[in-house]
Amino acid sequence: MSEDINIEAAYGLSERGTEEKRRKRPREVAEIFEVVILAIVAVATAWSGYQAAKWDGREAFLYGESTRFRVQASEAATLGGQQRLQDVSTFNTWIVAFSEGKTEIAHLYVDRFSPEYKVAFDAWLATMPFTNPDAPPGPSFMPEYVNPHTEDAAELNKEASATFDEGTEARDNASRYVRQTVLFATVLFLVAISQRFTYRAVRLTATGIAAVVMLIALIGVVALPRL
Prior knowledge:
By secondary structure, the protein is mostly helical. The protein has one domain (about 25-225). It contains 5 helices and no strands. Helix 1 packs antiparallel against helix 2 (about 105-110), helix 1 (about 1-100) runs antiparallel to helix 4 (about 150-195) and helix 1 (about 1-100) runs parallel beside helix 5 (about 200-225). The two termini are about 80 Å apart. Residues about 10-15 have low confidence and may be disordered.
């Protein structure tokens, strides 16, 4: 009789143990899945934050370069304006000397033209300006006239605009990485919340949502440019 009782007791304990293992198995699988999600999110969050910081640095550098180009363009434009003003002033003085028949003085003023203005001056004389009513008013209106400082200013302004646009793009990339970091933080929140529930369906649902958000964030990070 006692042997039958022991056998029944052992059988009951075995069934309870098997049932307990069956109940624990889904929970263990869920815990492993959560650990995997947390590990991936931890690495991805660190990477996203790292890239956001690098793009922030890139943005600051490019904006600084753009400012430098603007300053150089302003200096070049000032030099160009001064050179043009000097050439025009010298030309006006030459006109007076030439009209008064002071040939030597007129030649002296011609020698004081900048090289670029001298080319335009010779081309202007070739149009017979004193007899041709259709001639340009002066050498500075000739297509041959080129002011190197003014051209440098235009190129520097163009470079400044392009660099500023690159800085804006870098800022946008940094913002995108920050948004992905927020998504990863949302995943961490969902996993933490899911662990508070003992009801398996609710826990699995929260973990599933966390996994979907994690995949969306990972795809976003992979699609973003990297430094």
